[in-house]
Queue: 3 jobs
Job 1
Amino acid sequence: MLQRDCEALMLLQKQGLNKKNPASTIVATLFGTGEDVNWLTGNDFPIDADTELGEIQLNDFFDESQKRAITLGLNRQRAVSVIQGPPGTGKTSVLAELIGLAVKRCERILVTAPSNAAVDNMVEKLTDIGLNVVRVGNPVRMSPSVASKSLGSIVEDRLAEFRGELARKRADLRTDLRHCLKDDSLAAGIRQLLKQLGKSLKQREKETVKEILSTAEVVLCTNTGAADPFIRKLATFDLVVIDEAGQAIEPSCWIPILQGKRIILAGDTCQLAPVVLSRQAMEGGLGVSLLERASKLYGGGLNHMLSVQYRMNDAIASWASKEMYGGLLQSSPSVASHLLADSPFVKASLITQCPLLLLDTRMPYGSLSLGCEEHLDPEGTGSFYNEGEADIVVQHVRSLIFSANKLDCLETPKAPPVPAWKRTRYWYGVNYAVGMLGNVPTGDRVKSAVPRPYPVPCGFPKLGEYSPVLGLIVPPAKKKVSLDPMNFLLSYDVSGNMKFYRAEKWIKEGHWKNNQRLGFLNLITVTEDE
C-alpha cells in the first residue's frame, strides 16, 4: 500500500500539470494553479447546471440539499466537487443517484473508498438500481453479498465453457502422451501443444478481463486497488467518486484521481480522520485528508453539505449539529420526535420514552459501583476492560429486550463461551446469546458506550421498523471524532462515570444540560434523575 501511495505521488509530481494529463484540471484546482482556478474564482462557482442535465429529471424523493449535491456533481464544468454527508443525511443514496444519472449520460465511472466495507456498500447500492458494476479486489476481503459482482467471479462465469473445452483437450492430449512415451519427437509435439493450451487460457483470461472492465458502467475498488494494472490500462474515466474520503490519507486518493477527468470527494470531515501512526507523518500533514483540505479551498466553494438528517431524534441530532456542524444540520420532521415507545412492538417505559439516557456507574454518595474499575487485559494487548460496566450494559439490554411486546420476535446469533474478563466483547442474558459484531448485519447492531474507546458489540433484533441503538462516547482527543452518531437511531444510551461526562464541557453544556432526561443505574433499578 505504501509503495502504491508513493508511486502515485511521484506520478502526480511528474505529470500532474501536464496538459496531456486528463486529470490536470483536477490537479490545478486542488493545488491552486492553472486556468481552471482562474475560471473558478472568476465565476463564483455557478451551481445552476440545468443545461448539463439535459432531459434528466431528479427524483422528488430527494430534498433540496440532496438535489443540489447531485446537480453540482453532474456539472462537467466542475473538476472537483466535495459532498459532505453528516450521519443520516442520505449521502450514499445521493451518490448512487448521481452515479446512475451520470451513467445515463454514457459516462464511465470509477468508484473507490479507503476500506473494502465501504466499497462493498456502494456495490450493493449500485446493483440495486440496476447498473452494470464490477468489483475489483481480493475476493477474500469482499463481502459474500457482492461476490457475484467481483471481477474474478465474472471471469470464471464467462470462461466456464472455454475452460471445460480446454480441460477435455488436455485430457485427450495427456492420454495420447502416455501412448507415445517411446516416440520422443511425437511426445515433444504433444507437450508443446499442452503448453500452447496453457498460453491460450492466459491470453483468453486477459482478453476477458479487459472486455469486462471496458464494458462495465461502473468499476469499484479500494483507493490502493485502483493501482491494479488492469485498471490503469483502461481508458480515462469520465468521473471518479471517492466515498468516505475523510478516512483516507491524501496520497491514496491520488491513485484513482489521476485516472479520471472529474472527481467527487464524499464523506464527512467531522467523523473519523485518517489513521496515521507516525508522529512525523502527522506533523507533515498526512493527518489532514484531501476531503478536509479541498472543503476549505476557495472559501469553501467546492464544498456542499447535506443539511437534513433522517436517522436520529432531534434531541440527539441537535447536539451533533451544534457542536460539529455549526447548527446547520436539521432533523427531518419524520424522525425529529421518534422514540422507541412509538413502535407498536415496544412497551412504553422510562427507557423507551427517553431519547437520552445516561447509565451512571458512580453511586449517589460518590463512589464507583461495585466492579466498575478498569483492568488491564491479561493477554498483554495493552487494552483495558471494565467488567462492571459490561454488567450494567447487559442489564440495560435485558430491559430493552423485555420492553418488546412479543419476545418470540427476537432472534440473535449464538456465541461460544469466553473468559469472564472478555465480557466487554460478548453479552449473555435472558437466554439470548449474542455474537461478535462482524457476524451481525449492520442494521441489527448495538454498541454500548463507555468512557474508553472500546465498543461492546451485540446483535439486537429489529422491532418492526424501529431499531434501538446504543452509541459510543470516548474521551475526545479531537472533539470532531469523539462522537460517532452514525449508530444513533431512536435512542441514545451511554454507560460510564458521570464524573467524566460532567468534566467534559462540550458534552454537558451542549447536550445533557439542554435535555434533562438522564437515567441513573445502580445495577438493580433505573430511576429518572432530573
Job 2
Amino acid sequence: MKTAIFCLFLFIQVFSYGQISIDKSQAGEFYLIREAYYIKDDSTYNINENFIDKTTGIALIPFNDSTIISIDHGGIDNVLFIGYGKKIKNPGFDVSRDDAEFYLWSFIEPNNSERQKAYILKEYVTGSFEHRGVNFYYFNIRFADNSQYQFYASVIKYDPTKKKSK
C-alpha cells in the first residue's frame, strides 16, 4: 500500500512539473574558465590545476530582477559557489572598457551554510580571438577579506531551444 501511494505521489509530481513552460529566451550566459589566479595579501597564485583540469565554468542566468551566478566543476552536481547577483555601479575596479558589468554577489558554498558577499567584475577582453569565433571575458571576484579570484573565460555557445543530435 505504501508503495502504491509513493508511486501515485511520484507520478503526480512528475506530471505536474512536466506541464511547466520554461522561458527559453532567458537561458543565460555560460563561460569556460581558461586561466585562474588567486590573489591574497599581495601574492598571486596560479590555480589552473583547480579550475582548468576539472573543466570549471561560470554561469550567469537572469531570474526576475537579479542574476543567478554559479561557479561549478562541470555542472550542478559539483557546485563550488552559487548565489544571486544584483547589477551595480563600479565599486572601485580598474577597468579598460566602458561596457564592463559589476555585480554584488550574495552566495554560499556547499559545505558552508553562511551567506557571504563579494563584488564581481565581468569585462570583455579586447583583442580576443573574434576572428576564430572565440570571445574571452575577464572575471574578478573580490571577497570581503580582500582576497580575489581572477578568471579568463571563453563564452560557451549554448542554445537551449536546439535538441542534441544523437
Job 3
Amino acid sequence: MGKGRSVHGLVVKFGLEEELDLLITLTSMYAKCGQVHTARSIFDRVFSPELILWNSMISGYAKNGHAGEAVELFKKMISTKVNPDSITLRSAILAFSQLGSLVAASWMWEFVTISELKNDIFVKTAIIDMYAKCGSVVLAREVFDSIPHRDVVVWSAMIMGYGLYGQGKEAIDLFHEMIRSRIRPNDVTFVGLLSACKHAGLVEEGRGYFNSMRNHGIEPRHQHYACIVDLLSRAGHLEEAYGFIREMPMAPEVTVIHGDVELGKYAADRVFALEPWNAGHYVQLSNIYASAGLWKEVASVRVLMKDKKVIKSMGLSSIEIDGKIQSFYAGDKSHPRSKEIFEMMEELERKLKKAGFLPHTDSILHDLGSEEKEVLLCNHSERIAMAYGLICTSPGTTLRITKNLRACVNCHSATKLISKELEYVLILFTGWCFILISVDDVSKLRSRMRSTIEIQRAKKNKLDPLDGSKSVVALPCQELSGIQHPQGIAQSVNHVLDVRNAISRGRTE
C-alpha cells in the first residue's frame, strides 16, 4: 500500500489527476487493498465512468464486506443505462449474498434471467452460492439443475451449499454423481464435502474422503485439515485431532481447537507468527482460556490485542420480516418495539425454565457470577432477533436469522427448545453453517405446510415453503414476479441496505 500511495503522489505531482486510465488504475488499486473510501473518492471524480471503473468499485466494495455500498452502486450503475458484464454481475451477486436476504437474492436472480447473461455459467455458479448463503439450498439446487454442461466449479458450488447446511448425505450423493459424470474434483470440492461431513457428524466418511484426496491428485490444504480436525474434535477424538495438527505442513488455526488448553497454546504459538493481525485467532485463544477459568491469561490476550490494535468484529444478528431486514446487537434496545421484544424474551425465559432448560453458563467467557452470566446469555443478539420475529409472526412460520459470528452453545440449545415449545421453524446462519431447527420433524412440517395456502404462495414465487414462509416471502406475489426492468430491482432493495453496514462500526458482543 505504501508504494501505491507513492505512485499516487507522483500522479498528483505531475498533474495527471484527470487521466482516465490512471484514475481507473488508482481506483482498482485502492479497492483491492481494502481502502474503499479512498477508491470511492477517486471514482466520484469521474463524470461518466466506464464499465471497467464501475466493476472495480463494485468489486472492491463486495470483496471488502461493504455489501450495502456495493448494491447501492450497482443500482446506480443500472439506472444510468450502463449494461453490466459477467464481472459486474458476479460482484453484485457476491454483495447480495452478504446481505443474507432471500427476497433480495430472488430479485437479483430475476434480473439475471432477463439479462443477456442469463446462461453465463460463471454468473449461474455465483447465483448457486448466493442462494445457499441466503438460506435456500433448494433454490440453489434448482439453478444447479438448470445448467446443462456443468464444470467442476459448478459441482463444487453446489456441494459447498450442502456443506453449509450440514446435509452430508446430499453432499456425498452429489459428489459421487460428479465422479460418475467424469468430472475431476478439485480442492474446493473437498472443502465442501468435508464441511458437510463435519456438520453432519459423519466421522468415518470424513476420514475416508480426506484420505482419498491424494488419489485424486490433490494435496490437502489448510482448510481440509481444519475440517477434519474440527470433525474429530466435535466427536470427542481429541488425541487423533492432535495428531492431525502435528502432521499439518502449515500452521493450524486456533479455531480448530475444541476446549483443550494445551492444544490451543500449541496452535496459537504457530499461527500468531504468521497472522498477527487476525482477530479471530486471539478471540479463540481467549475463549479457550476463559473456558478453563484462566482469567489472567484471558487478560493477557486482551492486552496483546490492544497493543497490536487488533479489533474484534461486532456481533450482529439480522432477521427479515415483511421484506425488511432488522439487525440487532447484544443488549440492543434501540428498536421502536424494544419493550415488546424484551417482554417476549422474558416470556421465553419463563417457558425455558418451566421446560427444565438449564443455561450453559460455561459459554459466557467472562469472570462473572452465575446470575450475571444468565442475564448476558439472554441478551445475545440472536435471542433479540428471535424475539422480534416471534412478536411479528404466528406459529408455523419459518424465522431465518443470520449472525456474523458463531452462535454460543446456550443460544443453540435454547433455540431448539423454543422451536419445539412454540411450533416455529428456526434457521440460524452463523457465517459458518446453517442450523436448521424444525418443529418435531422437518418432513412432518413440510407435509403439514403443503395443505395450507402458504405452499401456493411459495410455489407462485418459486420458493420452497421450508426455505421461505411468510416471514421471508413477505412481499405481494405480484411485486416479486412483476419486475420487468433492472430499475425495479434497484428501487426495491433500498430498505435492506443501511442496517447491514452497522457490522463494520466497531461494537463488540
